[in-house]
Amino acid sequence: MKIIITGGAGFIGSNAASRYLKKGHQVVVVDNLSRRGACANLDWLRQQGSLEFINVDIRDQNCVARLFRQHRDVDRILHLAGQVAVTTSLTSPRLDFEVNAFGAFNVLEGVRQAGISAPLIYSSTNKVYGELKEFPIVRNNGRYSYKSLPYGVSEDQNVDFHSPYGCSKGAADQYFVDYHRIYGNPTIVFRQSCIYGYRQFGLEDQGWVAWFMIASRLGRPITLYGDGRQVRDILFIEDLLDAFDAAFAAGNGAHGRVYNIGGGPDNVLSVRELLAYIERRQKRKLQYRFDDWRPGDQKVFVSDIRRARTELGWTPKVHWRQGLDLLYDWVSQNIDLS
Questions:
Q1: Rounded to an integer, what distance in angstroms lies between the CA atom of residue 313 and that of residue 250?
Q2: CB-based burial of residue 11 (10 Å sphere; 0-12 exposed, 13-18 middle, 19+ buried)?
Q3: How far apart are CA 41 and CA 88, in angstroms?
Q4: d(CA 191, CA 259)
Q5: For residue 18, what are the contacts with CB-CB under 8 A and spacing of at least 6?
Q6: pTM for this prediction
Q7: Which of 43, 244, 284, 295 is the most buried (most CB within 10 A)?
Q8: Which pLDDT score, from 0 to 100, does residue 336 have?
Q9: pLDDT digit string (tens) for 23-63?
Q10: How high is the mean pLDDT of the chain?
């Protein structure tokens, strides 16, 4: 098969590209290489199989249109390119909009106008649900949790965009849903929770699981925004790639559908618990400071992943303890890349 991956030199994209290359598929990586670690990821991919790299910024409408005209024979598309940090969206809202909303629109239009019928997965975010203030939160065992959502937040929850990032990603999310409804494009939306794993060159404002591991190894300052009791359901990269495969394999039944893709209730972790894990691995106390809560930061987000289990036959396989071990070992072995 031929597979196009926008953002294919990023964390998720490079892992997806590697999986498909190793299976013998032809992979077209589309990226502008602006993200930290992208060049290293691309060099890593070049050694693995039939790779074509196209340096394109998805904000460039004409280049994106030409890309899809030249690859009308594509079999699968992953749209993973984007601006990924809430903090960046607050300081540069126009950039955030142009990349996430307009860039996604360019991809959709490029596919539609080229007459491509290949299924197209969009990497959305749990941030489209907003602050979820209607659900009471309690504090148990040093972490926040929902008082009455044992399975987490479902796809039936109304979207409520907060922050420019939430707005830009949410707008794209809804465009992907509507392009199936109006034009019949076989789109699929993944509202992803916290993804972590190999080749994640995390930063303070995005990729927090990897960032704390990298910062602790390099002796860089660590800041906890809020009180550190925030909880997320985390999902190991290999499980996300399995979800991509499951959605593609589901065929028409998945088209036009939205899926929450995260670790679910069995894979929740607080910021403090991650730091405690790192301290155990390094056998020393970490130095860190606290700062104010950041705008749009949810105290809790846990994905209800039952729809994906029912409709796609997918469920996470890597427990968070095992996943943290795998990422920690990778960071330790590749600290020079970080």
A1: 9
A2: buried
A3: 23
A4: 6
A5: 44, 45, 48
A6: 0.96
A7: 244
A8: 65
A9: 999 999 999 999 888 999 999 999 999 999 999 999 999 99
A10: 95
When computed from its CA atoms, the radius of gyration of the chain, rounded to whole angstroms, is 19
Residues near 276 by Cβ (< 8 Å), separated by ≥ 6?
Answer: none
In the predicted model, residues of the chain with pLDDT beneath 70 are 336-338
Q: How many residues does the chain have?
A: 338
**8 A C-beta contact, residue 193 and residue 303:** yes
Handedness of CA 315, 317, 322, 323 (dihedral sign): negative
For residue 263, CA distances in Å to 70, 73, 227, 275 come to 37, 34, 22, 19
The three state secondary structure string of 117-173 is CCCEEEEEEHHHHCCCCCCCEEEECCEEEECCCCCCECCCCCCCCCHHHHHHHHHHH
165 is catalytic: yes
* CA dihedral (7, 87, 139, 283) positive or negative: positive
Structure token pair of residue 247:
């959605």
Count of C-beta atoms within a 10 Å radius of residue 253 = 11
Q: Letter for the amino acid at 56?
A: V
Per-residue pLDDT tens digits for 176-207: 999 999 999 999 999 999 999 999 987 777 78
Q: What is the residue type of 157?
A: Q
Closest Cα to residue 26, out of 58, 62, 57, 54?
54
CA distance 222 to 201: 16
Question: Which residues, including other chains, have CB under 8 Å from residue 306's CB and lie 6 or more apart?
Answer: 151, 154
Domains plus CATH for the chain? 2-333 (3.40.50.720)
Active-site residue (options: 122, 165, 175, 196): 165
Model confidence pLDDT, tens digit, residues 154-172:
999 999 999 999 999 999 9
